[in-house]
## 1
Amino acid sequence: MLSRSARSLAQTSRSSRPSRSLTTSRIRLSPSTTPKSQSAWAAATESAHSVLTPPPSSSSASTSTATSLDDPLSVINAEIGNLKSSLFRMLGSSNTALDTVAKYYFQAEGKHLRPLLVLLMAQATNGLGGTGWEKMKMESGSRRSIDDSLTSQGGVLNDWNPEVNGQEATGSQVFASPFQIPPFGQQSIPQPPLNVSEFDGSLQQNGQPMILPTQRRLASITEMIHVASLLHDDVIDSSPLRRGEPSAPSTFGNKLAILSGDFLLGRASVALARLGSREVVELLATVIANLVEGEVMQLKATSEPETTPSAKGFEDYMRKTYLKTASLMAKSARAAVILGGCGDSDGSGLSKDGEWVKDVAYGYGRNLGIAFQLIDDALDFLPPDPSLGKPSLGADLRLGLATAPALFAWEKYPEMGPLILRKFSEPGDVEIAREIVGKSDGLQRTVDLAKTFAEAARELVERLPESGAREALIGLTKKVVERVK
């Protein structure tokens, strides 16, 4: 349900995509018993929380003090459950319209795969960094809040957030007059108040490695970057729906959707700087650049498609898949390990313990992300299912995109070529392309390739010491390909 301010911003049009069925396919959806409001992958990632044992009862859940020994991942369960509250706190704005639109996609339940990956990787690797881990724990204990500003003065100089700092006093800053340097020893702009929250502490549980506040914040940052990309993608693709509900552009308009995506990236950048690691800032900043590079590669693939099936064309498709999807998973997993003290991340010379863990985390996230996207591309050719969280029925084809199933089918059926070259733009092109893919081995080859990447992710993460978190990470490599069978 939209708030009154959201309803006043929303447009009335709520269009939906057409619905047809695929008559020929070698792959069928796994049976789903999840509610329609929950995507199949959301159910899969939830099961990763309880790979070893059933989840704890609701009466025993806690945000930061869970101590259940029966469920090694109860702390992570609680943190994922509180993710929305954490994100809303980070995205507070005095501008009502911006506050509403920036939080719009967080209203619905999403997959939360990226925050889950960060938290699991943190718990699976914390303690492997030796002296680096001890240093990170000590620094964490000395901080008042993960929202501590690096700037000595408050106000708009360091971005006033009413969720964190409270409402700014009327007249506290005047812009109708020039800024003047105050007399020595006086501040023109006072440091804003800081409301310390439940998200500022470590997540601890008996018998399990603690998760540091910086790693908790990283989990939220990854979701903010992901959702910012969704806001921008929905504008580019003119998508009327997102997770079965009206998209932000169709509800609030393209301008507010784009600006809200920019706002998310801005707040994510502020939060990144406060984590205190230059390497983590660099990693996540390159993710933002990767997302843009991937989108431009996708635009080029539709405007200047390959004229024949080629290794280069498929490599470009796979590179775009990494840039748009897997980069965030790979680099945020690596960042989680760095924040746990693995490797000499900032050149301090303190410790190189656990340097190898950084590569394990990156490789796991990269391979899992590519497997995830390949399965997503296969699902686009299957009959629609309310639990999928995406429209299916050739949505990618309608955008002019030739994904792995179509590229594989093209190798056997040359008639796919003209459809790709004209971006499936003529009446009946999408249906013909889906029929060609259905009678080819394109879907099966796509799923097989996804399994190859998922297996590689599993082999990497199995190098970590045994733990409940490691088993959950292994479980994700299975769940990602079980969305089709």
Note: The first helix runs from residue 4 to 9.
## 2
Amino acid sequence: MSSFQARSPGFRTSWTRPSPSPRHTSAVDRFEFGRRTSTSEREPESPKQSGREYVGFATLPDQVHRKSVKKGFEFTLMVVGESGLGKSTLVNSLFLTDLYKERKELSADERIERTVDIKRNSIDIEEQGVRLRLTVVDTPGFGDSVNCSNSWKPIIDYIEDQFAQYYEDESGLNRKNIVDNRVHCCLYFISPYGHGLRPIDVGFMQRLHDKVNIVPVLAKADCLTPTEVRTLKERVMREIREQDINIYSFPDCDSDEDEDYKQQDKELKASVPFAVIGSNTVVEVGGKRVRGRLYPWGITEVENPKHCDFVKLRNMLIRTHMQDLKEVTRDLHYENYRLRRIQDETDNPDVKQERLNSIRKDSFATKEVSEKDRMLEEKEAELRKMQDMLLKMQAEMAKQQGASGSGSNMGSLADLATNNNAGSGDSESNMPEEMSDPNDSRSSTVEV
């Protein structure tokens, strides 16, 4: 170990795999969505470190960073909860956009006959040169019926379908441009009007906790006093532990993390479930314009940590743990689905044969497309060759007309006809069939 002691500060001296901290596992470490680290803020790099010559592999993080920023990022967020809990307002407040411009209010009769639906809204967001493809999956109608025994089934089917689509694309031949539509996070809204979790809340989380990262959210926290918020949080977390529900678990901090980050991580873990307030209205408080809600007895500020946990939820979801949510989805939930899929194909030969037939079909389709492209290229080459022949013939005719000089028009035509008859053996062999036709109008004009 003597050769590994002289290292630059911050370099790990052990070969153990670090915990999946969002600040170490991705190229997104170089920037946050609210602030991007500039080159001048980084530590200066010296060509020689501890007597060793500078090789240059220290620039690998910069290479990964540039490539990741150029490609862009994708994130899929699902919001689940009964109507009236402020799901749409919270999403618009989180990303400072309006994803539900075309939404219309339903009448009472339409709400009675309504079932659980799945609606996707995608939008491209760019911030300081970083592009994010945000997809929000809404579930209108969840928990609105009298009988909610199967209200989670469409949601489970949607998540499974996205896993299946990604599995098909990953196992196919064209793996270069795979679109990741897997659900990376599910914000589950808990009603503030009850005394803890309802049966539908427990049933939903028990059936989906092994398929998606569930982040419980206490909706409309302005309806409760601070004491009631703390009491309801403790009761919800106690019931989650009693029901053996695995919600999203924040990764542990590394020992070399700074104290500010450790304190922030500690506060995030203590804030679950997040008591949030959503608002798209701007009000004036003390000469400062802020987003909040105006009541006869006062103003509730959305981005005030003393009023709600909106800032903590936004920091967790966007600035600190977005990449970790994607990695947990890839390494845990998708791998569990992939393992079940492979076991089904192994135990059931029909499923395996169907999968092989699908791969062959994709292969044949790819070959057919390539064969069509080859035929089109051959046709284009033939057309270019014919155009070149016509250009040469026109050049020869122009040259012969110029050589006749001051002769009469009839004499030039006769000379041209004589020259064409003299060289008919060569020209007819090079000309296409439609040009060597004796009944063609151009040949009859020359003979006159």
Note: The mean pLDDT is 76.
